[in-house]
Amino acid sequence: MRLVSFEAEGGAGFGLVEGDAVADLTGAFAGRAAGLRGLLAAGLLKEARHAAASAPRRPLAGLRLLPVIPDPDKIICVGLNYRDHVAETGRTETPEPALFARFAGSQVGHGQPLVRPRVSERFDYEGELAVVIGTAGRHVVEGDALAHVAGYACYNEGSVRDWQMHTTQFLAGKTFAGTGAFGPWLVTSDEIPDPSTLTLETRLNGQVVQRTTTDLMITGVPRLIAYISTILPLLPGDVIVSGTPGGVGAKRNPPLWMKPGDVAEVEISGIGVLRNPVVQEA
């Protein structure tokens, strides 16, 4: 299944994508689930396909898509998780995952503009695989970790590089408003049983700037889930953004920054294409 969060007349909703239409599930789960996060938390994901059969249809093109999970309890990002990216940054591989947080207000949905902040021109792309938790867990065993996954999406973890480097802590450059894109939809884990078999490609104005396969992650998805869940409980709707490969704009010569008028795309096999124009902050 491909599930989206959207905004239309009457407010926010969620639904199941069927071709160029969306089966609007908002009413079918009213009182039981508010949004996709609520659907996951209530354990109703398997009911979504059945409910879609009788749900009203909306044209997909007429909807303003929101981040896949607009209101996650937490967004945990992974830094330096591909060796070619570690090499281009001049850093050394860490024995455990390098983690930092983003906030929900830093995200936009598919088709919505990424916002270059007015305090910087060093706005960089980072194509990544996003993992959405479906079943809560604490101290999850690595061998059981994928059973906790609801599904996967594309993520552009836009980074404001000069602010990121103000200190050794990444957060300042990683969570500016409107700098991260999350979408276009959640593809449920039954369609992607092994997240290490995917191909990821990032394009800027049609030019391929990053390309990798997810088996090249230093710390794979099961180990990330086990490690993070040891620190704090993972909840339905939580998002793990699993790291970007080499080819980021900051390490090119000359650097390649996202600028107003550009179009950034992240494509992951089995999921689709996350596409966002870039605008300047007002």
UniProtKB/TrEMBL annotation:
Residue ranges of domain Fumarylacetoacetase-like C-terminal in the record: 74-279
Entry annotated with the keyword Hydrolase: yes
Which segments constitute the Rv2993c-like N-terminal domain? 1-36
Q: Where along the sequence do coiled-coil regions lie?
A: none
Q: Name one Pfam family in it.
A: Rv2993c-like_N
InterPro entries xref list: FAH, Fumarylacetoacetase-like_C, Fumarylacetoacetase_C_sf, Rv2993c-like_N
- UniProt keyword annotations, A-Z: Hydrolase, Metal-binding
Please name the GO terms of the biological process aspect recorded for this protein, alphabetically: small molecule metabolic process
Q: Which Gene3D superfamilies match?
A: Fumarylacetoacetase-like, C-terminal domain
Q: Which domain of life is it from?
A: Bacteria
* Thylakoid is among the record's keywords: no
Which GO terms fall under molecular function for this chain's record?
A: hydrolase activity; metal ion binding
The UniProt similarity line reads:
Belongs to the FAH family.
Query: What's the protein called, per UniProt?
Result: FAA hydrolase family protein
Species of provenance: Muricoccus nepalensis
